Structure formats: C-alpha cells, structure tokens
C-alpha cells in the first residue's frame, strides 16, 4: 500500500509540473496577444487635487506630426512645478484629464515630415509641453537634444530643466563672474545642486546654501556655507559677508523675498523662479497662497533705484513654450553639454521610481525629502504595494477613483533608492 501511495504521489507531482509549464506558456501567450502596439502606459491626472487624482492608464500612442520627433521614453523628470500642476496651482493650466511632465529622455522611434537633425535610434533628451510621463512622446524638434555617449537616460532626465534654468539665471540674468557670491534656497534640490555645480565652474565664487537640517550632511561639500532655512539665516550670512551677496536665487517666495532683498549688495540681483511656499498640503490651499502673497515684500521702484538693486523673475517653461526662447535655450544647452563632457557638472539623481510609484515619488518631493532629482524610470518594476495604489485594477478596464480623503489614511511606503 505504501508503494502504491508513493507511486501515486510521484505521478501527481509530474502531472502538476506539466500543468504548470503548460499554464505558463498559455498565460504568456495571452499577455502577448493582449498588448496593443498602438497603446502605451501613461500617468493620467484626472482632475486637479490630491494624489488620488493620479492614475497609470493606457492611452493611444501619439504619432509625430510635421516637425516633430517621436521618442520611446526611458526616463522622466519630476519637478516641484509638477506638484503645483497637480493641485491646479499654476496660471492657465490645460483642462484635465491630462498627462503631466515637462522633460524626458529616450530613443528616437520615428520622425515627422520635414524633421531634420535626428535619426531613428538616436539617444535624446527633450522638453515636452505636458505629456512627458508616458512610454512614448512626440515633441517639436526644437525641443530635442542629442545625449552625450556617456550620459545615462536617468541623468538626461535630470539635466534639461534644472541645468538650463540654473545656467540662465546665473549667467544670463545675474551675470555671474569671478569672485561673486550667490545665495540659493532649496540648495539640496535639483536646481540647487545644479546651481552649486555651475558656481564651482567659476573661480572664487562663494555659495551660501539654504536647506533643511536633514540635508546638510549630504550637500555640505557642494556649497561654501550652509544654513537652516528655519533659522535667522540673514544674520548668519551677514556675519560672514557683512555687505551681503551679489545674487539671490529664490524658489520659495513669501517672507523670503524681503530677506533676499535685504541681503543684496549694491548692483546685486534677486531672482524669483518659483513659489513653493504656496504648497503646504496635498491639495490647493487658498490660505497658503494668500499668506505667501501677504508676506512678499512690497517692492518700491524708487527704493530699488536708490539702493542700486535688481529684482527679476525667471520661468524656463514660459520662455520655452510661450515666449519663443528655443534658440537661446539651445545655445545654453550646447554650453552645458560641453561642461558635462568635461566632467565639470553631473546631475545628482536622488532616486528612481516606476510609473506606478508616481504618488510616492510626488510625496517625497512634497515632504522636501529629496537631495537632487527624482526620476520616473519607465522600465523599473514597481513595488507591489505601491503599484496597487496607482494602477487601474478594474476588471472592466475603467479608471477607479479613490474616495476623497482616503489618501491621508493610507500607510505610505518608505523611501526606495
């Protein structure tokens, strides 16, 4: 009887293995047949609001129009402006649903009519007017640049917006020269780190970095002096440089505008390039907007004249997409790529995230936890618990919305490198 039982068990095991192998083949065939070559994955913003408005869904793949390049995306950049877009905290945003994102890197898959300068297979990075957070994008050829051979796709996605913005503010708006001093807010962020690296390319430039205490150890070697954003950094800077600084780069606004103007030397330049103080919660806060507006120093032109101070604003996205700045940006990009090839600048990548982890990635930016750039890596596999929170799971294939307020009750996954 024992031998019979053993033989039966052996037969059952063999049959089970055979069935499993057969099922795997059938399942693989079903998955392959279900993939529509004309569809792509994309992050969709269903409406302005919290993280629950984001979903990874399938969309029809775009095709290049006249003068456009079609790119098979490998990596996308996440920026603080993307949080403001999600909340509806920017002027004249497109009507949702929309695909967020303004920069990506990848491989040229095809080109539209009368499109010159690129070939299929070229490794490129590109600016995109929205629609970047997808497996495929199409964008005008004027916004596309060839990547250096040694640059990775992740580095390329961390390069375009941040380094071009940093370069133009420092050298084209403020005219940075040898021996000058620069104060930069959010020194641990992607623009802040780009500013620090570009300042190091000019002799004897002093960089005062303002950042959260938790980032000081990570960024202390990239700046000359570092201070806590919540401390009285005005007095600390004046202890080192009683006359003040030549350039202030402010992405916060609010009360920091007045502090920046106080610190400016004669002929110094204060440049506002963001207003992140308006973002305090997961959704748009009219109180935070009003508070930030109220705290902004009311500028008197006569006082600027008397004190020989310059106040300016800079928006790379507006310059590119609304003010016809492509030629100027291309000139800057050529200079930046030369610096990269010389090994003088290199993007700082904080972390890589799958498309399905976009909520967690955005939360990390919101918490000001990143040092350098967060990247959506198209080929990265998501952590299962994260994927279930951001991906469509409806059997009918329809997008499922989280109930309002549920987001606050979900346990968030820890930071993943």
Task: Give a description of the structure.
The chain is 35% helix and 22% strand. By secondary structure, it is of the alpha/beta class. Helix 4 (160-173) crosses helix 5 and helix 4 (160-173) packs across helix 12. The relative contact order is 0.13.
Task: Give the oligomer, counting copies of the same chain as homo and different chains as hetero.
Answer: single chain
Average pLDDT confidence is 83
Summing up helix and strand content along with how strands pair, one would put the structural category as: alpha/beta
Order of H and E elements: HEEEHEEEEHHEHEHEHEHEHHEHHEHEH
> Can you tell me the overall shape?
globular
Total strands: 15
Rg from alpha-carbon coordinates? 25 Å
- In the predicted model, the low-confidence regions spanning at least 5 consecutive residues are 1-33, 393-417
Roughly how much helix do the residues carry, as a percent range?
25-40%
Total of DSSP H or I helical runs spanning 4+ residues: 14
Distance linking N and C termini: 57 Å
Largest sheet: 7 strands, mixed
């Amino acid at each position: 009887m024992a031998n019979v039982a053993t033989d039966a068990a052996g037969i059952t095991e063999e049959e089970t293995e055979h069935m499993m192998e057969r099922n795997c083949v059938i399942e693989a065939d079903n998955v392959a047949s279900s993939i529509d070559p004309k569809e792509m994955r994309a992050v969709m913003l269903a409406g302005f609001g919290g993280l629950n408005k984001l979903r990874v869904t399938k969309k029809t793949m775009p095709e290049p129009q006249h003068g456009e390049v079609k790119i098979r995306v490998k990596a996308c950049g996440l920026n603080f402006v993307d949080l403001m877009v999600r909340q509806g905290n920017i002027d004249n945003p497109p009507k949702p649903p929309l695909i967020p994102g303004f920069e990506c890197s990848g491989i040229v898959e095809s080109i539209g009519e009368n499109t010159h300068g690129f070939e299929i297979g070229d490794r490129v990075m590109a600016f995109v007017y929205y629609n970047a957070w997808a497996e495929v994008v199409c964008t005008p050829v004027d916004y596309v640049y060839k990547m250096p051979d040694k640059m990775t796709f992740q580095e390329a996605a961390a390069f375009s917006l941040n380094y071009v913005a940093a370069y133009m503010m420092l050298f084209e708006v403020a005219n940075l020269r040898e021996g000058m001093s620069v104060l930069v807010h959010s020194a641990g962020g992607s623009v802040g780190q780009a500013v620090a690296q570009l300042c190091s390319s000019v002799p004897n430039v002093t960089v005062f970095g303002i950042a959260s205490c938790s980032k000081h150890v990570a960024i202390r070697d990239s700046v000359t002096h570092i201070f806590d954003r919540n401390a009285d950094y005005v007095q600390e800077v004046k202890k080192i440089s009683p006359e003040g600084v030549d350039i202030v780069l402010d992405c916060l606004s609010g009360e920091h505008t007045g502090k920046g103007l106080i610190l400016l030397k004669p002929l110094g330049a204060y440049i506002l390039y963001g207003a992140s103080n308006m973002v305090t919660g997961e959704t748009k806060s009219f109180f935070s907007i009003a508070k930030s507006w109220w705290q902004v120093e009311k500028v008197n032109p006569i006082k600027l004249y008397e004190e020989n101070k310059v106040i300016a604003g800079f928006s790379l996205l507006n310059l590119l997409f609304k003010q016809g700045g492509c030629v100027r940006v291309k000139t800057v990009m050529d200079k930046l790529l030369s610096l990269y090839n010389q090994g003088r600048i290199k993007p700082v990548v904080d972390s890589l995230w799958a498309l399905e982890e976009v909520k967690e990635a955005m939360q990390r930016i919101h918490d000001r936890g990143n040092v350098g750039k967060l990247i959506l890596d198209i080929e990265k596999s998501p952590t299962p618990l994260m994927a279930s929170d951001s991906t469509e799971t409806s059997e009918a294939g329809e997008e499922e919305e989280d109930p309002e307020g549920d987001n606050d009750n979900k346990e968030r996954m820890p930071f993943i490198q």
